[in-house]
Structure formats: C-alpha cells, structure tokens
User: What shape does this take?
Amino acid sequence: MDIEYVRSRFIKHFDGTTGSVYASPGRINLIGEHTDYNGGFVFPGAVDKGMIAEIKPNGKDKVRAYSIDLKDYVEFGLNEEDAPKASWARYIFGVCREMIKRGVEVKGFDTAFAGDVPLGAGMSSSAALESTYAFALNDLFGENKIDKFELAKVGQATEHNYCGVNCGIMDQFASVFGKEGSLIRLDCRSLEYQYFPFKPDGYRLVLVDSVVKHELASSAYNKRRQSCEAAVAAIQKKHPHVEFLRDCTMDMLQEAKADISEEDYMRAEYVIEEIQRVLDVCDALEQGDYETVGQKMFETHHGMSKLYEVSCEELDFLNDVAFDCGVTGSRVMGGGFGGCTINLVKNELYETFITTAKERFKAKFGRSPKVYDVVIGDGSRKLL
Ligand code: GLA
Assistant: This one.
C-alpha cells in the first residue's frame, strides 16, 4: 500500500493541503467459515493488504469522497436521506451514519482512498474500507471514545443497514484487531478472543484466487443465514435455551429433522461440524500438528462445497489440484461463491503446487488464477 500515492491524489483532488492518513487491512481466515453469525468460532488474521484513506475535515456539512482506484467522485450529506447511489460510497456513508448513531459528531470531510486488497476475492475489501473510516472518524471527531469492538460493529452494521449483507462480525473484527504474525481465535458468542502467533515451521500459507467475483449481496449469503435461523427455530421447540447453532449438537439437530427442510438441515450440519473443526485446529496448532490442521481444512472445503453449497466449479477444481499435489490443507476461504482458496503448503512443495495450479487452471478455464502469499499484518491504524 502506497501512502505517498494516496497523498498525491488527495492533494490533486482537493485544495492542495493534506489531512490525516489511516489504513485497515483485509483478512484471511484459517478455518471457521459461516460460523460467526451462528455464535461459533472463527480463526482469522489481518493481511498486509488493505485500504488507505486520507481525510480532512472541510468545515462543511458534506462529505466529498474520491475513489482513486475507480476514479469516481461522490458528494453526500450526513443525514439518513442523503445516502449516495454508488456502492463504494455507501460504505463510507454507512460508517458515518453508524458513528453518528453512537454519539459521534461527524462533520463534513474531504477524503481520497485506494486499496490493494483484491475486490470480491473473499479477503474482505469492504471490511477494510469500513474499518478505515470507522477508525478515522473516531480519531477525528470522536476523541477515540468508541472502543475497538464497537468500531468493528460499526462496520458490520454498515453492511446490514446500508449494503444489504447480513454478515457476521469476523471480517471487521479481524481488520480492526489484526496483529502482525498472529491469527486470532474469536468466540463470536462471548466475543472473547485470543492471539495465536502463527509461524508454521516448514509451511507457507498461500491464496489462489479463482478470479470468480463473488456477490455476497446477491442474497445467497443472506439465504444461508436464514437457513441457520430456521434450523435453530425448529430445535428451540424442544430446547428453548438454544440461541445459536453454536449451542446445538448433531443429536439435537437429528431430533428436529422432521421440522427442518432438507436444505436447511444440510446447512446446519455443516455449521455444527465447522464450529468443532475450529476448536480441533486450535488444539492441533498448539501441538504443532499441521497435518491435522490441513486435514480439517480439506474437511471444511468438502462441507462448504457439498453441504453449505457456497463453492463453485473453479474453487472445487483448485481444491482438487491442491489435493493431487500433496498440499497439506486447502479450502475455499471467506463467504464463498468465488474468490480464493487458502492453502497450507510445505515449503518444498510450494513451487510445484503453484506452477501446476496455474497450468491446470489455465488449461481448463482459459485464464490464470492469481496467487497471493499470505503475510499476516496489523489491524486499523493511523499512518500520518
Ligand atoms: C463473509 C462475512 C463474514 C463471514 C464469512 C464466512 O466474509 O462478511 O461475516 O460470515 O463471509 O465465514
């Protein structure tokens, strides 16, 4: 990410002066997919790619925002009825509104931003954008009174209320709380979290991007969430204390089978198994047992593909290639419907795997996948 580049665009676009500069990262997730909104565990980490924004209060009641990457300029007011049309600007507008709802006196500002986290690749470019502005507005207008968890919730509420995605807390949490070299296990029910230094000896994490753009807002994501809620509602008839799938066992699910559609049943089955897999992976990591970590990643892929049905032909293909190459663990990462696989690869297999994946993918789909080495970086911060 290039601060000077963002600054030069900001100066060119506005009145020649400079403001403050903030950054927030995208994220990876080792394991624990679609578990966050089910009160389960996730295991993400921030990456070294994200968004950078320069921001300066402008003394007006208007936000003037420039997307450097899209070369698009939008102005909007700060009242509920002022929502801009451009989807990228709705993220910034949503964050302003959610900060205002939390008592921050957000005033007009000029801003330009750019990012190097690939869009729609399952690395949470939108959370990076939300966290950047939540962190910045807290600093510029809120005397940093809003705590970090609430900043993550500002991003999540922006998705819910202004972007139509009923997401969980994982992406925004990872973006705000990220720490160089560490993954973070988050319990999405209690919000307790723990940093796990992640420097696997002899292995690397690499993302292979199918470059199939996912469309979370296209309602498939929200539909998965509804399936989980429907399963919970059926289980609650016998077990009223149950709040999330996190509180359910496979026996409880089985017991309620007659009241659950076949599709919702499969979704719930995946989630209950996946929540357990995160715990198993944490135990395995503590033992330095990367073979088990990898095996669980393959199991997750299988579940996401066959039970949760959020994979696609390209991602299943990349997963098969990884398996054929003897990669330790591989699976679709993030919400799914496109984007990347995350792969845990032995150092000595890395080159062969990447070359084979590129060749075979190109032969089958006529284009090359992209490859990103994972570097686990810091969360939201002020740069200048
Ligand atoms: C998206 C959502 C997250 C989470 C993942 C799947 O990234 O924003 O809240 O549900 O999908 O694990």
Q: What stands out?
A: The longest helix spans residues 262-286. Residues 33-34, 36-37, 124, 167-168, 170-171, 334-335 surround alpha-D-galactopyranose (CB under 6 Å). DSSP finds eleven helices and 13 strands in the chain. The two ends are 14 Å apart (CA to CA).
